[in-house]
Each structure stands twice: as C-alpha cells, then as structure tokens.
Amino acid sequence: MGGSIQGKTAIVTGAGRGIGLAIARHFVERGAYVMFADADEAALAAAMSDYDERDPHVRSFAGRMAEKLATANLLSATLDAFDRVDILVNAHRMVKVSDPLETDLDVLEQLLRQNMMAGLRMTQIVAKRMIRQAEEDPEGASAGAIVNLSTLAAQHPVPTMLGYSIAYAAQEQATRGMALALAPHRIRVNGIRFGSVMSHELKDSLREKPELRDRIIEATPMGRIAAADELVETVTYLASDASRFVTGQILTVDGGRSLADRVAVQTV
Fold first, then answer.
1. Of 132, 146, 148, 258, which one has the fewest beta carbons inside 10 Å?
2. Between the CA atoms of 174, 176, 180 and 183, what dihedral angle is there, to the nearest 10 degrees?
3. Residue 1 in domain
C-alpha cells in the first residue's frame, strides 16, 4: 500500500490532536501542502508550534465544521494559501454517550450535525471546487480524493452510544452516495471504519476507565490497540492515485475486532 501525495493540497479537519493530527503531519512529511483545521484553537496552536510559520506547506484554520460559514471560510482560506484543493480528509468528530431509551434529541441532533452533516457539507463544497479543477485538466486521472473517518459503531451499534452509532451509519451511506454522484467527475469518495486505534477520545476513556484497555485488547484478535500513526498509511493510500480505481468503499482498520464473535473471544 502506498502512493504519492507529494505536491498535492489537502484539507484535514480534526487536525488539532489525535488521529486527525497524525494524518495531517504525515501528509506534510510526504510532501503535501496541508491545511490543518480544527474547532479547538488551543489544540491547533499547539499542533502548529511544531512548524515554522513561514513553512509554505502548512497553514491552519480554526472553526467549527458544523457551522456552514466555517466550511466556506475554510475552503477560501485553503485556496488563498495554496490555490487549489486535491484531498479532503474529514477526521473531526464528536463522541457522546446517550441512553437508548431516553435519548436526548438535542444530543442526537448535535451528533448528526457534527459527525455526518459537517463532513457532508464539507464534501459538497470541496467537490464543487474539484469539479472546476477537473474541467481545467480534462486529461487528468483523478480530480480529487475525499476520505471520511468512520467507526465500528456504524456497523456494530453500541447501545450506550446510540446517537453516535446512528450518525456514523448515516455518514457511511453518505460516503457511498457521494461516491456515485462524483464518480463521473473523477472524484473518489471513500471511508475508513476504525476501532482499536488510540484516538484522543479513547485516551480520555482509558483515563476514566483503565479496565477498558483489557476489554478492548481481549476483543481484538491482533491483541493490541493500534497507534494513531498506523491508520495514516491507509488514509494516504485512499488519498493518493494508488487507489485511483477505488471509490465508495469503507475500509476497516481494527486489528480484526469486527470479525470476531465477542463471546468466543472472551472464552478462548
């Protein structure tokens, strides 16, 4: 798995910390021009402190992706800095627990807005720009690549995180639908469904519930939790021309966790 993204321009949302930050940093290392975007200004500032402010490959944007104006401003800032956009990675997300019998509709709406609608809106606005770029380069193999980060909860519902599961199930369907809509324009849309990856949110959960680590490892056939960096090569593959005939797919990166019968894993 590989593929070059050197010289490409990428927007990575959720790039202030965790998996989004790992992806954005990796893209820079691979020679891409990267717009780091996040709602958390402090986290974003800390992430950007690793780079020289004069580095032509790196820019940042602080804004809430769930807000329509923020998505438009993010695209404008990217075009001002780099003049084009070739890759979009929707890595921002919100994690909230919800009672399946007493679901707070406000919480459900928040999760849908942040985890599905924000990424869909970002995809739509960036795709329009990619289509314009494709018209200017009709002979190009690919006009753009969009990668959405999903979760195992989209396929295997977690009762205590009903809203979260619903939002990502919708996001995965949106990924497939947009892939069909944008394929004639040579724009590819794919997703990555991950589970046993040390995200920022998982770190927080492990601090609150240390026993959760053993449960995850026990349920994961490969017997460990992956580092955030282990996800980035899959993202890079889907973002690069190495996957130029791949679209509408949801790749699972979870150490085999989704394959195992939970009872069997616990009794082996």
1. 132
2. 100
3. no
CATH label of the domain that carries residue 41: 3.40.50.720
Taking the CB of residue 242, how many other CB atoms lie within 10 A of it?
15
Number of domains in the chain: 1
- CA 126 to chain centroid, in Å, comes to 15
In a domain, 178, yes or no: yes
Residue 56 belongs to domain spanning: 9-197+228-255
Q: What is the pTM of this model?
A: 0.91
Is 267 among the domain residues?
no
Determine the distance from the C-alpha atom of residue 64 to the mean position of all C-alpha atoms in its chain, rounded to a whole number: 15
pLDDT of residue 46: 95
Q: Indicate whether 29 belongs to any domain.
A: yes
pLDDT digits (tens, 9 = 90+) for 148-204: 999 998 988 878 888 889 999 999 999 999 999 999 999 999 999 988 888 777 888
Residue 84 φ/ψ, nearest 5 degrees: -165, 175
Alpha carbon of 67 to those of 107, 122, 261: distances in Å?
Answer: 16, 10, 40
Give the position of tokens 């026993």.
Answer: 211
**Cα 109 to Cα 107: distance, rounded to the nearest angstrom:** 5
